[in-house]
Amino acid sequence: MAVANKKAVASVATTESEESTAGPVVPRQTAGISISNMLYSFGKKLGTVAAVYLLGYFDLSFAWLLAPVLLSVVRDEWKKDHEARRSVAKAAATRSEREVILARVGDLPSWVYFPDVERVEWINRILRQLWPNVNHYARTLLKNSIEPGVRDSLAQYKLQGFRFEKMVLGNIPMRIGGVKVYDLDLHRKEIMLDMDLFYAGDCDISFSLGGLKGGIKDFQIHGMVRVVMKPLISDMPLVGGLQIFFLNNPTVDFNLVGVADMLDMPGISDLLRRTIVEVIAGIMVLPNKLPIQLSDSVQAEQLRMPELEGVLRIHVVEARNLMKKDISMLGKGKSDPYAIITVGAEEFRTKTIDNTVNPKWDFWCEAGIASPELQEVTLELWDWDPGFPGVQNDDFLGRATVEVSTIAAKGEADLWLNLDGVKHGTVHVRFTWLTLTADTSALLAALKETQHLRMTSLSTAVLMVYIDSVKDLPGSQSSSKINPYIQLSLGHKQQQTPWKESTRCPVFEQGFTFLVGNPESDTLDIRVINQKSGSELGQLIYNLTGLLEKDDLHVVNQPFPLARAGADAKLIMSMTLRILVPATPPAEDEANGEGEGEGADDAASSGTGGDHSRAGSLRRPPDSPAKSASSTLLKQGSGDSLGTSTAVNNSRTPVDDPMVIATAQPVESVPPGAGSDTSGLHQRSPSVTSSAGEAGLGRIQLTLRYSIQTQKLIIIVHRVANLPLKDKDHIPDPYVKLYLLPDRSKDSKRKTETLKDNLNPVYDERFEYLMSQAELNSSQLEVSVVTKKSWLSSQSPVLGQVILNLGDLGLPKACTIWFDLLPEVPRDS
After folding, report:
1. At what angle do helices 268-284 and 147-155 cross, to 10 degrees?
2. Which of 538-570 are b and which e, b meaning 16 or more Cβ less than 10 Å from the residue's Cβ?
3. Which residue ranges does the record assign to the C2 domain (predicted)?
């Protein structure tokens, strides 16, 4: 950067010297005033005076003039912010590898952070050569796949006739920030890799919408793309096909130009942006995949048949202490909260609870999971406000994210999650991970489980359907009046294929997934419909009991006759049925081993939240003393629960320090008075210590963990023990305050609730910081136990403090440790 600045200075100096030797500089503007400029200035002033005069003449409120001016200012500021972010992203997309490395930390590619991600500038150079051909393929994808989806979605809001007019991706190719290749078993016969894809190019896309002409500029998309090469074959090209898909919804942004530029403002442009994201999700966000067949020897079904690893059952119970967004006569009122749950391409919404900041939804939903390793569950809470349908008028109440892998590792989780992006608020969610089996004997247990929960809408099985083609539909030989598509219905869910133009033998090659309530009674309704007339061309009603009698609950490329379609009409499809079974939690040795540190924070947050009594009601009973003591002795610190530690102490097992709960590594490598716990944290017992720490100020128990996938530092403040009582008449009201150092700022401040008159407070509250691994290794965490200030005091007295070097804690592996509270360190030091 210094070299670049020197070059810039030299360039400026050279330019100045050239100008000085070239003779007198002619000013760009003449002394005279042009008539056109004078008329333009006169017209602006006349328009302003006329507007004020007309307001007074018609006795109109000044708000008629102020409202459009205010709206224009808000729109301009909003566009400036978006254009600034787009220009930064666009600049990053055009950088070379060396320039990217010299950029700020937020622009670094993923291979800088993660040792298993490889730098692939050679791929970016290949993409640069292939980009003209990618342009042609992208135009076909936009026209045939994205345009129909956007048109149908906008039609729901009475916006008709969406159509792409011009589609050019420009000269700036997409970039791959890094590639991770997985080491898979050879019997899987596939290659799997993840790519950090980023595109911020100079595209030129124009469209028409109901007679309105507009365009899209500065289109950007960023997300983690998985590419699966399968199956591996013995003939060239050695790979039968590709499956390309986003693991989670990508980030999409763009700028509207032309006449449609008036729509590019908060709320209205969000409608088009959200529609495009939904269409992309429907094409290539899990469980949807974009298949590409490379060899004729590979059946399309191998690439397009849905593949699920399990089903995630989500129970959104309630939320507490949400922000007050509605304004009443007396100031801030309450909110009308609802929650949106997103898992890959699937989205669910709870009902809206009016006029409360402590809503209770008791909402259940289920989502099929194709890849639990990197998929996430995102919960967004919103305050509902009336407005134009489809436009985001609602106020944001917070966001929480949970990795599916941590739930799958535990089998179930019961969490109180702090909401990010707002000052306060928590949400209570329960998760259950269900695996798939072809054993029909498991169906009875699944049905009993849904009856026990009194939720008949929950699923007991998964049906995966692959629609291959339809043969010999009724109609004339020309088929010019037939545009068939297939509509599938099971329970309350309905899906459909795209329509095929002018054919009596359409080929669809598309997969679908349905969650089944009871396969003994449910039916799959399939209808072939003519897109031109809306008339039904044929129907098939299939009882799922027929699949229960098949080997492996599976049929492959079977022809089914269509009713009311003639004797020759056949539907060719494959179906697979799988029963849902609750996942078996891993064995105790495996759950507490070193390899399970990734999921420990979610186990630790079971029952976490601002209300201690609420957290305590969610804990499971501890193991028996005999089992706990024996397991602790055998493992020598493999990470047992705190309930286990109590049992160990009761049985007088030798422990060097009564404060040590358990260790996740050999005892001699743990700092004195420290312990680590990586599982079963919801079984915490009451205080297990009588020590007040090295300085006599008490001790604090924390769980810390870093998530490489989401780049989040996760901290759980469990409890503080044995605070000193200096004045019997003034028992402290403690709370815990967190700061990230060295850049102490309000954005990094986190705090627990205040517990009154308490020397041994229990919080069990979870906090998160979004930060890169490079920032993690160079940051400190300041943890202070503070008592609430009195009316006469200007500051809250610090009872004790500990400052942690995050790079020395062995993160990302989770650890639960007791720390001695020390006197407060002056801020200037």
Report:
1. 130
2. bbbebebeebeeeeebebeeeebebeebeeebb
3. 293-417, 443-566, 696-819
Task: List the end-to-end C-alpha distance of the chain, in Å, as a whole number.
Answer: 32
What proportions of the chain, in percent to the nearest 5, are helix, strand and coil? 30, 35, 40
SS3 (DSSP) at 595: helix
β strands within 472-614, DSSP E: 484-490, 493-496, 507-516, 523-530, 536-543, 554-561, 570-582
Question: Residues 100, 101, 103, CA angle at the centre, nearest 5°?
Answer: 65
- The helix or strand, by DSSP H or E, that contains position 384, with its residue range, turns out to be none
512 C-beta neighbours (distance < 10 Å), count: 22
Q: Which residue has the higher pLDDT, 154 or 703?
A: 703
Residues of the chain with pLDDT > 90, as a percent, come to 30
Predicted confidence (pLDDT) at residue 655 exceeds the cutoff of 60:
no
**Rounded Cα distance, 544 and 298, in Å:** 28
Q: CA 734, 740, 744 angle in degrees (round to 5)?
A: 95
Q: Are 278 and 231 a contacting pair, CB within 8 Å?
A: no
Question: Closest by alpha carbon to 145, among 343, 296, 308, 288?
Answer: 288
Provide the 10 A C-beta neighbour count for residue 393: 16
What length does the chain have?
829
Span 154-181, pLDDT tens digits: 787 777 888 888 888 888 888 888 898 9
Domains identified in the chain and CATH numbers: 85-304 (no CATH), 310-437 (2.60.40.150), 462-579 (2.60.40.150), 619-820 (2.60.40.150)
Report yes or no: 105 and 779 within 8 Å, Cβ to Cβ. no
CB 292 within 8 A of CB 301: no
Q: Which residues pair with 554 in a beta bridge?
A: 576
Which of 33-47, 190-204, 262-276, 537-551 is the most confident on average? 537-551
Q: What integer pLDDT is reported at residue 259 of this predicted model?
A: 57
- Among candidates 393, 391, 72, 388, which has minimal Cα distance to 261? 72
| Average pLDDT over all residues of the chain | 76
Q: Are 334 and 352 in contact (CB under 8 A)?
A: no
Question: 794 near 675, Cβ under 8 Å?
Answer: no
Residues with Cβ within 8 Å of 335's Cβ and at least 6 positions away in sequence, in order, are 322, 323, 324, 325, 326, 355, 356, 357, 383, 395, 397
Spatial separation of the C-alpha atoms in residues 246 and 375, rounded to whole Å: 10
Task: Show contacts of 442-450: CB within 8 Å, 24+ apart.
Answer: 442/579, 442/580, 442/581, 443/519, 443/520, 443/548, 443/579, 445/581, 446/579, 446/580, 446/581, 447/518, 449/582, 450/517
Report the range out of 119-123, 373-377, 511-515 with the highest average pLDDT.
511-515
Give the whole-angstrom CA distance, residue 627 versus residue 801: 37
The predicted pLDDT at position 669 comes to 31
Q: Do 208 and 198 contact (CB within 8 A), yes or no?
A: no
Classify residue 467 as exposed, middle or buried by CB count within 10 Å of its CB (0-12, 13-18, 19+). buried
Mode of pairing for the β-strands spanning 191-200 and 376-383? unpaired
- Rounded to whole angstroms, the Cα distance separating 388 from 263 reads 14
Category of 405 on φ-ψ map: left (φ > 0), alpha (ψ -120 to 50) or beta: alpha
pLDDT bucket at 217, cuts 50 / 70 / 90: confident
Find the angle CA(9)-CA(11)-CA(17) to the nearest 5 degrees: 105
Going by the DSSP 8-state scheme, the letter that residue 606 receives in this structure is: B
Report whether pLDDT(726) > 90: no
Give the pLDDT confidence of 105-134 residue by residue, as tens digits.
Answer: 444 555 555 566 788 888 889 998 998 888
Which H or E run includes 185? Answer: none
Q: CA-CA distance, 222 to 85, in Å (whole number)?
A: 13
pLDDT of the residue at 66: 61
* Tokens found for residue 169: 């991706």
Nearest-angstrom CA–CA distance, 670 and 692:
19
Closest by Cα among 137, 76, 414 to 290: 137
Q: How far apart are CA 145 and CA 465, in angstroms?
A: 21
Query: Would you state the pLDDT for residue 5?
Result: 44
